[in-house]
Amino acid sequence: MIFMKNVKELQVEGKVVLCRCDFNVPIKGGVIRDDNRIVAALPTIKELISKGAKLVLMSHLGKIKHKEAPEVVAEQKAKNNMEPVAARLAELLEGVKVSFCPATRGEELKAAVASLNNGEVLVVQNTRYEKGESKNDPELSKEWASLADAFVMDAFGSAHRAHASTYGIPSILKEEGKQVALGYLVEKEVVSLSKVVNVEERPFVAILGGFKVSDKIKVINALVEKCDKIIIGGAMAYTFMKALGGEIGESPCEVDQLDYAKRMYESGKILLPVDTVCANDFDNPTEVREVPSNAIPAGFEGLDIGPKTREIYVAEIAKAKTVFWNGPMGVFEKEAYQAGTIAVCKACADLKGQAFTVIGGGDSAAACKQFGFKDEFSHVSTGGGASLEMIENNGHLPGIDVIGE
Ligand code: ADP
Ligand code: MG
């Protein structure tokens, strides 16, 4: 790992510090459904406040499609307004002055930054209100960078994107000889995921599930190189079963990935389910059966790994010294198809203190939280896509490399 400055090392009293956070929280009708990401940002924010910085916080929130008609864009902007985040942050930072700037650039933003006193916080409106954000527009990056004396990257979930707020700003500030650093949250991600990228303790077992093979091709490639065993579950298992000549009934299958699946299987490292829980209808099943994975009857689709597979997978996980898990073993949102995912969660939890266990993936993280195992893992990544890309790119992400280059 290249040496990178940490937020603790910054000297920023009286300086404007621009901190890129991940405040991409679920919001409905202006109400925050889960403030985890805001809470997770607090250590870095508090550190900068205690150092006497004038703190400017930026983040994206949701999606805004600038190519749509103006009224659609306006609707998306209203839906993804950052103001409730500023309000929640003010509650969490009792005693600290937190203000909100509805402008994303121009005189209004400049004036809001200029009015900050040491130890005060300004939350800027959603960076994606700007069309140039996702394009890493040089003019926008320049304008944002001109506001700041220093930059802190604490948005791991956005570190795989070279956008104006994640890449443009720090590259300019660095060129100008200004301080740039990683926040606590990103630093913990980098340290933890590095142990998966550069495996120290073997056997290294990867657990892959979820919906699509095509989403995960690159990570399967990388993991076949790095792992000792890859356990496959979820809907992607049926593409593998089909590739090996099995009958998969109505189970989801990506026909264009069959050759790829076969090739990966030939690595000799892949374990596939031997039995499957299948049903005759996704929404309203009248029959749920446990069958061999290569003999799913017509009219049925596989929705979870079966009991024999659970046993085999649990035994394999028990031997591991490093575990990386992405993708649930079944449709864990429905009670009838949770057992596989719960078994894997529990097997990882049982390794506590003996192995390094990491979850990367939004739904997998949600599942482990739902089933009460969140604190039993060594690390639950806050960035699904970012954690996968970090493994695919052998530890590199643009928004992190730019801090250390
Ligand atoms: P992550 O967010 O952890 O990367 P994914 O997004 O790849 O995981 O996959 C999660 C989704 O996969 C879940 O919504 C789950 O219901 C679905 N899934 C898992 N197994 C199956 C299956 N057999 N059939 C249909 N969907 C499945
Ligand atoms: Mg997902």
Class based on secondary structure composition and strand pairing: alpha/beta
Instruction: Report the uncertain regions.
Output: none
With strands numbered from the N-terminus, the spatial order across the biggest sheet is 5-6-4-1-7-8
Strand content: 15-25%
Ends distance: 11 Å
Global mean pLDDT: 96
Largest sheet, strands/sense/barrel: 6 strands, parallel
Bound ligands, named by name, code or SMILES? adenosine-5'-diphosphate, magnesium ion
* Global geometry: elongated
Radius of gyration: 23 Å
Number of strands: 19
Please report the number of helical segments: 15
Helix content: 25-40%
Entry summary:
The chain is an alpha/beta fold and 405 residues long.
Structure description:
- The chain has 405 residues and is of the alpha/beta class.
- Helices cover 37% and strands 18% of the residues.
- The chain is built from 15 helices and 19 strands.
- It has helices at 36-50, 70-79, 83-92, 107-114, 138-145, 164-175, 184-197, 217-226, 236-243, 258-265, 307-318, 339-349, 362-370, 384-392, 398-404; strands spanning 16-20, 27-28, 31-32, 54-58, 98-101, 121-124, 150-153, 179-182, 204-208, 229-232, 247-248, 270-271, 275-279, 288-292, 295-296, 301-305, 322-326, 356-359, 379-380.
- The strands form five sheets. Strands 5-6-4-1-7-8 form a six-stranded parallel sheet, with helices on both faces. It has a six-stranded parallel sheet with strand order 12-10-9-17-18-19, with helices on both faces.
- The chain binds adenosine-5'-diphosphate and magnesium ion.
- Magnesium ion binds next to α13.
- Adenosine-5'-diphosphate (ADP) binds next to β16 and α13.
